[in-house]
Structure prediction request, 229 residues.
Amino acid sequence: MKWIEIKSFKLKKKRRTLQCLHIKNKNAINNKNIILFSQSQKTNLGTILPPLIDIANFFKISIITYEYTNCINQSKVIEDCNLLYDYLTKFDSISSIYLMGVSMGTFANFSVISEKSTKINNIIAISPTWVFTPMILRSSEESNKAKKEINQIFELLNRFNIPVLVVHGKKDNYVKYLLSLSLTRRINKVMEWYPKDGKHLNILETMRTKLFIKMSNFYMGFYGKKNLI
Prediction:
């Protein structure tokens, strides 16, 4: 494929090394925009590459993603995502970062939202785990901490007017879609899609065409254009 250039590189912080993948679209409409993609726990750079190439081609944009150094420890995944996000914000050539994640990857993406979120343009959360799913609610103390975290995230999302597209399958047995349905009411700029046959990890694989249509509607609704420009 002449239109695409794929490069791998490593980011190092202290004793940790983060393996990254840059899918550069040579036909990108705007080279100053990029998607930061965070995968689910059960995928790797090899398996996620085909759908990412399709996204890069359809929306005429480049994508950067990373391999989790510790896919079991969510705090480490958050560190990985923040490391890559901080790396991208250092470049003046990048003006807008689009966060896109699946499952635990959405947890990582939401974690980068802070007072320095000026380059975040929008967020696409597929099968989101949010920040207080059953897998981290092991005590009332953790529950209160998680609720405080998500309250802060919603506050920042609305303060910076960051549009969010939430995609959550109704057959998701891992994180019930009703959680998304209740939480999205707190986001000022939000679009939702709840596919009736959607499971936790099948949307990006088996519903890709419909997903792209929903993404296009999302961009049209908030930006008046189909592509990320």
